[in-house]
Protein 1
Amino acid sequence: MGVCPSATMVLLRDNFTGVLRLWNRPNVLTCTSWKAPIIWDGTFNPDVAQREARRQNLTIGLTVFAVGRYLEKYLSHFLESAEQYFMVGQRVVYYVFTEQPAAVPRVALGPGRQLRVEPVMRERRWQDVSMARMRTLHEALGGRLGREAHYVLCMDVDQHFSGLFGPEVLADSVAQLHAWHYRRPRWLLPFERDERSAAAIAFGEGDFYYHAAVFGGSVAALRRLTAHCARGLQLDRARGLEARWHDESHLNKFFWLHKPAKVLSPEFCWSRDIGRRAEIRHPRLFWAPKEYAEVRN
Ligand code: 2GW
Ligand code: MN
C-alpha cells in the first residue's frame, strides 16, 4: 500500500474532511484510483466535519434491521452505543425495521435524536431476511425517511460503536472496506464469479471488497443503489440463483459500476477476531462475535 500523491488535494476539496493530520498516515492507501478519499484515523479533522455538518443543518438517518432473535440479542447495545458515538451533536433519526415493534427497547435519546419503528414481515430463510433489506430500504428512502434525512447510513445490527463515528464519513455514496479482505490481492476477493448472476464480477475486475454491514450516502444515491441491488437480487431469484454473499455481492457489483465517493477504512467496522494490526488505530465499530448456531434458523 502506498500514499496516494493527490490525497491532500482530494481532502482539501472535500467539505467533510480536514487536512490537519493527513501526514500522520504514511502507510495506508488514502485515496482510490478514481480520487475518492479513503478515510483513516488521522486523515480527517472531526471538528471541521462537525462544524460543516451543523452549518448545513443536516439530518442524518441510520437504518438498522432487527428481525427475529436479532432484536433481543443485538439491538439495545447497537442503539445505546450509537447514542454515545454516532453523529454526536447532529440531528439523527434512527429507523428500526422489525416485525416485533412492541419489543423494541426504549433507549433514552439525546436532544435532536429520534427513533422510528418500521414494521416489516418476517422472511422464512435468514438469507431472505438479509436480502429483503434492499427492497425495504428502497421503499423507505422513497417515503418519510427520504424526506426527512439528507444522508443515510445503513448498517447491520450485530455490531456496536466503540468510537466517534461522525459526519467525516458523509458523502454522496459511501462504501466500507471489509475488515477481513482489505489486504488481499484482487483475485482472492470473494466476489460473485458466476457469470449468470447479476452480481457477477470477472477476474481482473473489482476495486475493493466492500462490507454490506455499513454503506451510505445521499438519499438520491441510495435510491439508485438499493434499486440496483433489489433488481439484481430479483433477477437472480427468477433464474434460481443466489449470489455467494447475498445482498453484499450485489452491493459490490453496484460499487464496481458506480464508484463510491468516499471509502471508509476497516477502522470503521472492525472485527476483534482479526487481532492487532498496526494500521488499525481507532476502531469505531466492532462486529459482535458470530454465534450462527444460536441465531440462524
Ligand atoms: C441473518 C443470518 C442468519 C440468521 C439471522 C439473520 C438475521 C439478520 C436475522 O435473523 N435478523 C436480522 O434482523 N438480520 C439482519 O440482517 C440484521 O440487521 C443483520 O445484521 C443483517 C445481516 O445479517 P448478519 O449480520 O447475520 O450477516 P453477516 O454479519 O454475515 O453479514 C454480511 O453478509 C450478509 C449477507 O450474507 C449481509 O450482506 C450483511 O450486510 C453483511 O454484513
Ligand atoms: Mn452482520
Note: Residues 156, 158, 213 surround manganese (II) ion (ligand 2) (CB under 6 Å).
Protein 2
Amino acid sequence: CIKASKLKSTLGLMSYDPGYMNTAVCTSRITFIDGEKGILRYRGYPIEQLASKSSFMETAFLLLYGELPSEAQLKHFCARVYHHQTALHADIVALLQTIRHDAHCMTSVISALAAMSALHPEANPALEGQGVYSSRKTRESQMFTLLGAFPTLAAHVLLRRSGSSVPCLPAPSLATLLDPARPRAYVEHFLVLLGLGKARPGEEGPDPRVVRALDAILLAHADHELNCSTAAVRHLTSSGVDVYTAVAGATGALYGPLHGGATEAVLRMLQQIGTEERIPAFLEAVKAKEAKLMGFGHRVYKNYDPRAVLVREVAYEVFQVYGADPLIHVATALETAARSDDYFVSRKLYPNIDFYSGLVYKAIGFPLDFFPVLFTMGRMAGWLAHWEELLMGPEEEKKIVRPRQIYLGPAERAFLPIEARG
Ligand code: ACO
C-alpha cells in the first residue's frame, strides 16, 4: 500500500505507449514529415529539391544552422569540416587494429566513436564547469570534428575489414578540397581513400556520376525527425553525456535491422530470394509471419517513402556506370507483387529508403556489412542538428528522459534462506 503523499509524486496520470507510437517528447524545427502524403522537408525545403539542387555539405549546413548558406558561409563550413577529414587520430587507428578484422563494420565504428570521447576531454561539459551546456565554440568544434572525421574513420574500418592496410595517400590540400568545381569533395575524398567509384579500373579518380549518387544518398539519409537513432541521441544527451558518447549510442541504435541495419538485411533477403520465380513463396512466408519483407514498412509513412523514390532513381544512374545488378529485377518484381497483395496494401506497407540503397552500395563495391556505416555517415548531420537543438532549446524540454513503466511483478514477499527453498 503506497501512502497518498508518495502516490502523488510517483504515479499520477500515465499513458501506456510501447514504442512511443503516439508520444511526442520534444518540439523541433528541423524536419517535417507528412506520412500520409509521403512528404519530407528539411527546414521547409522539399527533399526532392535538395537532392537535385544541393549537396550533402550544403544540406548539412542547412540542418545545423537552419538556413541555406551563402557561398562564403559554405566555403568556411567546408573548410572547417574538411580540416578533420584529411587524417584520423593515431590512437583511433591503433584502437581499430585491436578489433578482429572480420568483426562487423558497425562494431568498429561504434567503438571508435565512443573512444573519440577520450581524445576530446573538452567534450565533457562538466569538466568545463558549465554543467551540461558547453560553449557554442566548443559545440561547433565537436560538430566539425565528427562530420569531418567520420568518412576517414569509416574508410579505415573498411580497409581493415577487407584485410588491406591503410593507404598512405598524400592528404589533399584544403585548397583542392575547397575547389568550387568540386562541390561534393566530402564524398569524393572518401571514395579516393578507398579506391572506389571509378568507372573503369585504372582511371584516376571516382566517376562524377558515382560521387553525385553517393552524395545524394547521404543527403536523403541526413535527417528523419525522431527515428530510433535520433531519439537515442536526444535520450543520451538528456543525461548530460558528451556528444561522442551520444552518437556512439545512436550508432548502436541504427545498427539494428529494423532501423539502419535494414539496408544490409534487404540485400541479404534479395540474395536469398535469388530469382523472381521464388517471390510468391517468400511473400507467403512473410504473410505467415515467418519472415519480414525488409525495406518495407515505416512507423510514419503510410504512403510511399519519398526517399525510396530518390534512391531508386539514383540506383539507375549508378547502373549506367556499372551495368544493372540482376537483383534490381528481383527487387522491382518484389515491390510490384507486394503492392498488389492485400496483406501489404491493407497494412499500408510501401518500400522505405533502405529497399533500394543497398543495390547502389553494392554496385559501387561496398561490402554488405559496410552498408549501415554509409547510413550513419549521412545521419550524423541530423544527429548533430538535434543535439544542438536540444541543448539550445526551451528549458522545459531539457528534462532527463526517464519514461515510466507499469509494474506487473510480484507484490512484496519475505526472503527465503536457500536451504528452505526446496
Ligand atoms: N514485412 C512484413 N510485415 C510487416 C512489415 C514488413 N516489413 N512491416 C510491418 N509489417 C506488419 C506487421 O507484422 C504488423 O502486422 P499485424 O497488424 O498483422 O500485426 C503491421 O504490419 C504493423 O507493423 P508494426 O510492426 O506494428 O509497425 P511499426 O511501425 O512498429 O514498425 C518497422 C515499423 C519497424 C519499420 C517495420 O515496418 C519493419 O520491421 N520493417 C522492416 C524493417 C525495415 O525495413 N526497417 C527500416 C525502416 S526505415 C529506417 O529506419 C530508415
Note: The chain is about 55% helix and 0% strand.
